[in-house]
Amino acid sequence: MKLDVPTLLVVLAFMTQMAAVSMVTNWARRKPDVHVLYWALALQLGTLCCILLVLRSYLPFWLAVGVGNAGVFVGLGLAWNGARAFNGRRASWWPVSVMPAIWMLAMLVPAIADSLAYRIALSSVLSGILSLALAWEIWVNGKDELVWRGPFAAVPAVHAGFLVLRTIAALTLDLPSDVMQGGSFIGLGILEPILMMFAATIIGLRLSDERLKNLLKRAARTDGLTGLLNHGAFMDVARKRVEHRSGEGDEVTLLLFDLDRFKQLNDRYGHAAGDTALKCFSTLVRQHVTDSDFVGRVGGEEFAALLVGCGAERGRQVAERIRANFADDPIHHAGHRIPVTVSVGVITATGLGVDFERLMVAADEALYAAKRGGRDLVFQAAG
């Protein structure tokens, strides 16, 4: 089967253009996603490069072959920077400039410029390096567990593997001098990018959508001021964890916090001062719990922490440290040093069949016992 090279180049140009339009449309709907714009620019540049190669019979060699292929490397560099943007990393432009510069310098060497085999081999090596860098950035430098991250990283990785084979074939096969008459080998070299680009576009958009959905879910479960779990989310995850741990007979300790005289603080210093106190306290609590514990803002000035695998003694120690540190470090707002204290109710449960609602009731009673006792106290209920 003979693969017509000009036709494949036209198809590739059309596909990259449609993919670029899809990316731009996606970016226009949510402009903070800068990575999508990078990928759209990379695809648009790929379209222009294909057009240059299609018109190579009517254009100077340096423009059609030199600039056309250099643009491919710039496009891969843009895609790499798009992956960096997706991972929250700053753009780096040296790959965008180094690989095209190497290519343009190589085109000044007659032995390379006049040989289709050498040009294919060199372009494959340069593209392969950038493709591996792209795969590495997507997979290794990602800090999340998105389902589509792996498949997306696999696309440039597979492309890099294909480019290795293409390099070997270019240096071992007997190739014509004109790429437009290169036959099935050249055709396969163009067909493969069509498939890879199509896969990358679909998977890349799915990856972006997946992260957006995760962010929306997280926002729906997070208190906007403190960054802690909101009331509904805390109750949900704490209940499930207690049910799971109680089935195994492990200890769990629940801490309920209430900032003392919070209404007076708002009335005297303003709600901005109250917000500062809430943020300072939330930061303090997170510093005193482990990553396996849950902390939430369950009311206006009320917080809760579920300490998993924590006994009564350690639970009281944690509560005391939080209470003491908060009392010893007044908040600073609008030039004022404002002392704020917190009351804490503590309940620890051990064994099978622990009921989360009963824990909440017991911790709430302990909290109000601390309030009645004069505030700025820790009261531990009997388990």
UniProtKB/TrEMBL annotation:
GO molecular function: diguanylate cyclase activity
Protein EC: 2.7.7.65
Catalytically driven reaction(s): 2 GTP = 3',3'-c-di-GMP + 2 diphosphate
Domain GGDEF: 250-383
CDD domains with a match to the protein in the record: GGDEF
GO CC aspect terms: plasma membrane
Leader sequence residues: none
Swiss-Prot/TrEMBL GO biological process terms: cell adhesion involved in single-species biofilm formation; negative regulation of bacterial-type flagellum-dependent cell motility
Keywords: Membrane, Transmembrane, Transmembrane helix
Top-level taxonomic group: Bacteria
Transmembrane domains' residue ranges: 6-24, 36-55, 61-80, 92-112, 118-140, 152-173, 185-208
InterPro entries recorded: Diguanylate_Cyclase (IPR050469), GGDEF_dom (IPR000160), Nucleotide_cyclase (IPR029787), Rev_trsase/Diguanyl_cyclase (IPR043128)
Protein name as catalogued: diguanylate cyclase
Species name: Kaistia nematophila
